[in-house]
Design a protein that fits this description.
Length: about 210
């Protein structure tokens, strides 16, 4: 049996590392306005963040879902950086974990190409070892994106960090401990239903669990 110490930490992206919901929601609603369709409320859209784009649009306009996806994918790449910013302390936590010897990956429902562009635009590319999007395999809460991320890192996994119950259940399915942050999409009460190992307002507590590797 291998005695190599697992070093992999996986992070969700939107709502976990980056406060990106305003830009995502603006782009999501753009298609409804552009095509003259009834526009859902921000609260209705926010509740679905983390699900695949097609599934989100199907909830509101199933017969127009494909068209709305096209509108989003045209609008978002031109506007994703307008208000999005890393949450306070994220860069310091990522840098500290790297210095302590851990391997860091994003595991997101975003498509891989867009996720990499987004991470670089937010100034986080140099702090992560891998950015894994969901491309052609089941989305969270299935653990596939985490398995792909850890395979790319070449190590076992320790923690999955996220802001939705989908992130937490995916992490649990992958056999990782789970860390929920309350500054993103799902409220503390909803996150608690997934029984994460940590439920915190920021990432600071993660450092207590991950001392420097020898």
């Amino acid at each position: 049996m291998s005695t190599v110490t697992p070093r992999g930490i996986c992070f969700d992206l939107d709502g976990t590392l980056v406060d990106s919901l305003p830009d995502i929601i603006d782009s999501f609603l753009h298609g409804f306005t552009h095509h003259g369709l009834p526009v859902p409320s921000v609260a209705e859209v926010r509740a679905l963040i983390g699900q695949p784009l097609e599934d989100m649009y199907t909830r509101f306009a199933p017969e127009h879902a494909a068209t709305l996806c096209v509108a989003y994918r045209e609008h978002y790449p031109l506007n994703f950086h307008r208000r999005s910013r890393p949450f306070p302390g994220v860069e310091r936590v990522l840098r500290t974990l790297r210095e302590r010897g851990y391997l860091l990956a994003v595991a997101t429902t975003k498509r891989g190409d867009m996720a990499r562009r987004f991470v670089d635009a937010m100034g986080l590319g140099g702090l992560l070892h891998h950015v894994q999007g969901t491309d052609g395999f089941p989305h969270k809460p299935a653990p596939d994106v985490i398995h792909h991320a850890l395979k790319a890192l070449g190590t076992g996994g320790l923690w999955m960090v996220g802001d939705t119950t989908l992130d937490l259940r995916a992490g649990q399915a992958a056999g990782l401990k789970t860390y929920a942050v309350t500054w993103g999409t799902h409220a503390q009460e909803e996150l608690a239903t997934a029984a994460p190992d940590e439920l915190q307002p920021d990432l600071e507590r993660l450092l207590h669990h991950l001392p420097p590797l020898g």
